[in-house]
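Two proteins follow. First one:
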Amino acid sequence: MDNLVITISREFGSGGRQVGAQLAEKLGVAFYDRALIHLASVKSGLAPQVFDQAEEEATSKFLFNLAIGGYVSTGIFSQINVPICDQVFFAQSKTIEEIAEKESCVIIGRCANYILRDHPGLVRVFVHGDAKDRLQRSIDEYGIPEDEAKTRLSQIDKGRKNYYEHYTNEEWGVLKSYDLAVNTSFAGIDGAVKVVGAMVESRSGVCLNSNSDRH
């Protein structure tokens, strides 16, 4: 049986990471967010900070390379002058493919829905929300001052959009790139987990662990 891989793409402040973490717990599968960064960093020789900045600071390929130009690559790509931003994408792509081959999991961001588009066990999810709710979540959960949160809401989504579209030639957030889109302003985090879980159960026959429900 093919590994079940759920990719979560998300707007900033939508709660997509929380949806992914709860879903992985209920399914009893691995959860990859920062753990993916660690693996890709170890394999590539690139500093973890490079992967942290990849989506959020990619307002353009040039600016991203400029922003992380001080980090040193020790991998093979450094010997053939591959731009740092491309090294990041290649390294995380290889890591994502290896993870999907090895085990069932939930993967957050990193263009995983595109990288694994031919994986037979793939379920692609996009999590979004109303701007006012995403703003409030950013303030409450991340401790970001309101004025800064408003700026980051726009900048981070722009970075994710540009990064995704640069490497995939697809439009970020467009429904045809995903199997399911969930609005957390309508469903809430727990509701979103149930919606995605129901789809996963229907598609793969894998059952969620009801004992891990959060009240």
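Second one, unrelated to the first:
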Amino acid sequence: MYEFRPTRRYSGWGHFRPVSEREAEPLGEALPWERASYLEIFPALRVVLLWPDLKVTGMWWALPYNESDAHQRFGLTGEPVPVHLCDALDGAQAFERVLARVDGRTFWFGGPDPLADPSQAEWLREAAAAPEGRDRLLPGLAGSQRLALQYVQVRGLELAHADERLRELRSLRGTPRERLEWLRRVARADRLEERLRHELAKADAELLGYSETTNADGTPGELIVEWRERSGGAGTAARRYRSLVSPELSVISSGICLSGRDGDFDLTSLVGVFERRPGWMRDEAMGEEGW
């Protein structure tokens, strides 16, 4: 059995050609059907995503959705497990129920769980973002989903304190350069979240959460931003939306037809487009969850 390192930085599923007994040259990305065919070799485990790891690109922490099943089949104890190569464009978001493919002690992201109710993940993200929390839980939530909400809320309180960040930094192993890179990622994530909240607040909207895609070279890519209007107007409820934007917050895909002019808008101006949509689009095209 050989273990290879890529000759250049690479993140994701790909084709590689060995150039020595230790290194392999990346030739390009694997096609979706190739990735799916490979992952089908391994048994599936349903998990609930918690949050991305700032130290490992594309890795999310997750809870087994069915603790007894996870213990019986894989010997897991119900503690969070790392899921690798999560793809935000394929549904990797906080509280989403996804399939993890189990390769020994390694868990690979296998895409969204087709049996999951997407409204549950949306409610959990909204509950986690609410400063006052929720008095009542959404009916039908599994015990693992309720536990996931507690995990995320507790982590949010911990990360709000600088001393907790320092303790996490001291626990890191690696070179001073790797520790510095971790600090830069934490600071960047804080700045990005604050910027998203600020840009949406200028248009009287609020951030519910965001996910970041990863380029093939491991660098951060596009942003999938979930947001809502602060009020839906008289007699209507605020609705949730999901938009794909660039790191500079220029719109890549608004979720509605803008006749190819998506790039003419940024995140703030896009909110205005949604606010000025015709009434028939509000009531018929959107439904309860937005586009």
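SUMMARY FIELD: The chain has three domains: 1-30, 31-156, 193-285. The first strand starts at residue 5 and ends at 6.
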